[in-house]
């Protein structure tokens, strides 16, 4: 393995372990900014040592042990930080004594450091936008660019938001814990949004060479299931779990033999994970039996329409269109309108979908959103307007940051060339 390949492997391992590492370190140092710095320091050490020694059997524990040593060095160097450590009730020997067993994985129980980190990052001292951005950075391991894409926002704006959020949390000095029921309810909307955005980044990666990042989907689902146990009477929690389970059931079918994207209507439904579908439908039944159903329950109901169709042609598009109408009324947004246009196109014809798209074509939030021209191109193909469709697919290819998706869009553009 070349040095470059080794470094890529190390960075891949770090991306998997990063969230647990930051969560565990936050429990120790009570400062998410410092915890992230210590985690990054451990990566630098790994990049220097692992090419010669090899990746250890338990890389997560190795990184945690290295980060804890860095924390000890930090507090010993910095007298002010040492006083802060005393205020927290810690002794350096206590940190040293909690070094992990290198043969024990960094797994958490239901009292989960990761869940604590989500609720800490979603503290009311932060704005809703800052809560989501910070948690995606710390737990999802997303870059500021990826978060900006997910938010349809500018990268410098997101970077400043994250820096300010870390500073605000450090100044607030809140306890690192899952809050009690009454306080938890106030933060739940932000927590659900975080989980959904993490899941979506795994389901359809905004950048890079891979179409999907299943590890992020699995982490979002795991945290969602824990959250459902903590809030068993919250319809939206169960709705989000249902939505993620049903969507994740398609992951194997979303890519071809060479990693190329496979769109929903072209997928081999025999590859859909029936266990995840059953779990998702059960979670949806639970959600619909509770008071307070909202947008996640509606989106899960939409996903269920696809899951119940054994063939693409059996999909109940009229019901999906009706559900999107309800969703757009409940939580209006340009992205929901884009999806509503697709549903109406399938239910009532491409001209119907195009009419909805025309209403949002100039929305500033969609100016750099590649799916707008991509969907428009699809409608134009169905209407026989191939030259216009080709331009839309080429525009979409220029906007996407995902290489797999770019190739797919250019292929669709090429297919619109008139026959010689």
Largest sheet: 2 strands, parallel
Question: What is the radius of gyration computed over CA atoms, rounded to a whole number of angstroms?
Answer: 23 Å
Percent range for helical residues?
55-70%
Quaternary structure annotation: single chain
From the N-terminal CA to the C-terminal CA, the straight-line distance is 48 Å
Low-pLDDT stretches: 99-111
In DSSP terms, counting alpha (H) and pi (I) runs of 4 or more, how many helices? 20
Secondary structure tally: strands: 2
The H-and-E topology, N to C, reads as HHHHHHHHHHEHHHHHHHHHEH
Indicate the overall shape: globular
Lateral strand order in the biggest sheet: 1-2
How would you characterize this protein structure?
The chain has a domain at 1-104. 69% of the residues lie in helices and 1% in strands. It has 20 helices and 2 strands. Strands 1-2 form a two-stranded parallel ribbon. The longest helix has 27 residues, at 3-29. The radius of gyration is 23 Å and the shape is globular. Mean pLDDT is 85; it is low at 99-111.
List the helices and strands and how they pair.
Blueprint: H1 3-29, H2 32-53, H3 59-77, H4 79-87, H5 92-97, H6 113-121, H7 128-138, H8 144-151, H9 155-172, H10 181-203, E1 207-208, H11 214-230, H12 235-248, H13 274-288, H14 295-308, H15 317-330, H16 334-348, H17 350-360, H18 371-382, H19 386-399, E2 401-402, H20 403-415
Parallel strand pairs: 1-2
Helix pairs in contact: 1-2, 1-3, 1-6, 2-3, 3-4, 7-9, 7-10, 8-9, 10-11, 10-12, 11-12, 12-13, 12-14, 13-14, 14-15, 15-16, 16-17, 17-18, 18-19, 19-20
GO molecular function: DNA binding; sigma factor activity
InterPro entries: DUF6596 (IPR046531), RNA_pol_sigma70_r2 (IPR007627), RNA_pol_sigma70_r4_t2 (IPR013249), RNA_pol_sigma_r2 (IPR013325), RNA_pol_sigma_r3/r4-like (IPR013324), WH-like_DNA-bd_sf (IPR036388)
Organism: Devosia insulae DS-56
């Amino acid at each position: 393995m070349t040095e470059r390949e080794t470094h890529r492997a190390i960075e891949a391992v770090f991306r998997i372990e990063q969230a647990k590492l930051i969560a565990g370190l936050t429990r120790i140092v009570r400062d998410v900014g410092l915890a992230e710095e210590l985690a990054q320091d451990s990566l630098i050490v790994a990049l220097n040592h692992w090419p010669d020694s090899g990746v250890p059997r338990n890389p997560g524990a190795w990184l945690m042990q290295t980060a804890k040593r860095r924390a000890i060095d930090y507090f010993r160097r910095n007298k002010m930080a040492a006083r802060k450590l005393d205020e927290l009730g810690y002794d350096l020997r206590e940190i040293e004594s909690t070094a992990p067993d290198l043969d024990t994985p960094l797994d958490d129980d239901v009292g989960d450091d990761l869940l604590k980190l989500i609720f800490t990052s979603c503290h009311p001292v932060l704005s809703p936008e800052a809560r989501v951005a910070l948690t995606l950075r710390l737990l999802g391991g997303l870059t500021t660019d990826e978060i900006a894409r997910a938010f349809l926002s500018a990268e410098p704006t997101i970077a400043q938001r994250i820096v300010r959020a870390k500073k605000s949390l450090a100044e607030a000095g809140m306890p690192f814990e899952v809050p009690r029921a009454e306080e938890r309810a106030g933060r739940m909307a932000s927590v659900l949004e975080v989980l959904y955005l993490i899941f979506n980044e795994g389901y359809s990666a905004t950048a890079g060479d891979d179409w999907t990042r299943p590890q992020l989907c699995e982490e979002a689902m795991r945290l969602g299931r824990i959250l459902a146990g903590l809030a068993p009477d919250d319809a939206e929690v169960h709705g989000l779990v249902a939505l993620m389970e049903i969507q994740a059931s398609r992951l194997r079918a979303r890519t071809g033999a060479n990693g190329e994207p496979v769109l929903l209507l072209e997928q081999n439904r025999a590859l859909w994970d029936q266990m995840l579908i059953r779990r998702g439908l059960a979670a949806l039944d639970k959600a619909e039996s509770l008071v307070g159903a909202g947008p996640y329950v509606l989106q899960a109901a939409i996903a269920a329409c696809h899951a119940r169709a054994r063939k693409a042609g059996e999909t109940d598009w009229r019901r999906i269109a009706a559900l999107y109408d309800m969703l757009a009324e409940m939580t209006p947004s340009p992205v929901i309108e884009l999806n509503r246009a697709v549903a109406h196109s399938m239910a009532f014809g491409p001209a119907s979908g195009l009419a909805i798209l025309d209403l949002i074509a100039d929305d500033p939030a969609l100016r750099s959103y590649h799916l707008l021209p991509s969907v428009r191109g699809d409608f134009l193909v169905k209407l026989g307007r191939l030259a216009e469709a080709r331009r839309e697919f080429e525009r979409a290819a220029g906007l996407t940051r995902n290489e797999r998706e770019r190739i797919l869009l250019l292929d669709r553009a090429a297919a619109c060339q008139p026959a010689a």
